[in-house]
Design brief:
The chain is α+β, with helices and mostly antiparallel strands. It contains 9 helices and 21 strands.
Length: 444
């Protein structure tokens, strides 16, 4: 009696390739891989060579139609750029894998290894690996071309500040560097009283103008010049110019406000010191510590200038200083600084140390000044302003020196002078508190 066993598990047999007769596992095409590849090339129509454009100056690659992008070798960005070159031809196959094959960096060649799949005869899926080689050609981008041409610009921003001391301008330069606003410029040209920023488009220049107006007190105006006109397409080509003028006031400048402006700031004294310039002008009255801020619009409605320039400063030495604790009577109604200390000081020019000639003044720097410190002051130029401006003289007392003759004030063609009627003849100071000769012109 035969031993009966269960049914055997079915096994898949091999078939013979219909082309070469080699035994192969069954597949819908009934062909081996070699014969199938000989019959069908799934990479047909996919270019095996391509071209990439590279700018040596800025080290960027061209992404058609007109965008230049920064890519490092064998990066994902560069791989995506290479695949976009053959994107249309890859639509007929399925991309399985892509990667770079190493090439010598200076060979001007990039090789890409691609793995693709495609359904072929009778539903059989064929997978194939092939290489695409790209030739890197040098081409200068438009931005670098404009930089090399130097005159190929569309807009210029002319920044000016008409002062001898450019503390505000130096502060602005540091802000421009911090925010990297200089990177989009084609060229930066330095001139006597400012800088010129050249741009490839009007929009980039407008961004710089908006930044300046938000950063420093300034005003701007724009103009444009027609370069060319295409009558067929009605296209106009302009060059735009933006002129930006920064207020001519810097830190530590002594200024004289107009009576109307001083009154609008809480009856502030007309003679003030600029303690800083940001988006507004920060002023302080050194005799009362009253502070105020003036924006650009207010300044251009009531403009004022510095009473002196740095070359007119003279060196003084602090002989004695007394800090004032109480607020000065008659001060304005505005806010006062808590960072400064009011003080009264006697000072003497370092060039007159062999004399007993001293000057009395008020200062807002009582918290840092001590006897023996050296400071820079303005005196002679202030006296000239008093002589020439009647509005300033209303806030000071002017005394006549009998030893100095008073010139006639009837000459209308000559420079402005102080009349005898304005001088106080009932007081003559021969000695000051230190025993020396007093000043010919004193202020209170």
């Amino acid at each position: 009696m035969e031993y009966m066993t269960g049914p055997a598990a079915p096994t898949q047999g091999n078939i013979l390739c219909c082309q070469c007769g080699v035994a192969i596992p069954p597949n819908p095409a009934n062909m081996c891989v070699g014969c199938l590849r000989a019959q069908v090339d799934i990479t047909e129509g996919i270019p095996k060579q391509g071209t990439l454009h590279f700018c040596k100056q800025c080290e960027r690659y061209l992404q058609p139609p007109g965008t230049w992008i920064q890519c490092t070798l064998e990066s994902r960005e560069l791989l995506a750029l290479c695949l976009k070159k053959i994107k249309a031809s890859l639509s007929k196959v399925r991309l399985i894998d892509a990667g770079f094959i190493w090439t010598e960096p200076h060979s001007k060649r990039l090789k890409l290894k691609l793995t693709v799949q495609k359904e072929v005869i009778n539903g059989a899926v064929l997978q194939q690996v092939f290489v695409v080689e790209y030739i890197v050609q040098s081409q200068m981008c438009e931005d670098c071309h404009r930089i090399e041409a130097k005159d190929f610009w569309k807009a210029v921003v002319q920044v000016r500040q008409k002062t001898l001391h450019k503390k505000t301008f130096y502060y602005l330069e540091q802000l421009i560097l911090k925010h990297r606003l200089h990177q989009n410029t084609l060229r930066i040209k330095e001139i006597h009283d400012g800088l010129d920023f050249y741009y490839s488009s009007k929009q980039q220049a407008q961004k710089m103008v908006d930044f300046l107006q938000c950063t420093v007190p300034s005003r701007s105006k724009s103009s444009q010049r027609l370069i060319s006109h295409d009558i067929h397409s009605n296209v106009y080509n302009y060059k735009s110019t933006f002129s930006v003028e920064i207020v001519p006031i810097c830190k530590d400048n002594v200024v004289c406000l107009s009576p109307k402006l001083a009154q609008s700031l809480g009856n502030m004294s007309q003679i003030c010191v600029c303690i800083r310039v940001t988006s507004t002008i920060h002023l302080i009255d050194p005799s009362t510590l009253q502070i105020a801020e003036i924006d650009g619009n207010t300044y251009w409605r009531h403009p004022f200038n510095s009473l002196f320039h740095p070359k007119q400063l003279e060196e003084f030495i602090i002989m004695d200083i007394n800090r004032v604790q109480e607020k000065k009577k008659g001060a304005g109604a505005g806010a006062r600084s808590n960072k400064h200390t009011l003080a009264e000081a006697w000072v003497q020019k370092t060039s007159e140390l062999n004399t007993d000639h001293q000057y009395f003044c008020c200062t807002h720097l009582g918290h840092i000044l001590n006897p023996g410190d050296l400071v820079l002051g303005q005196y002679q130029d202030f006296l000239e302003d008093l002589e020439e401006d009647e509005a300033i003289r209303k806030n000071v007392n002017i005394y006549r020196n009998a030893d100095v003759p008073v010139e006639s004030d009837t000459d209308d063609d000559g420079p402005p002078r102080i009349s005898l009627a304005e001088m106080l003849e009932d007081l003559h100071i021969s000695q000051d508190a230190t025993g020396g000769e007093g000043a010919n012109m004193m202020t209170e």
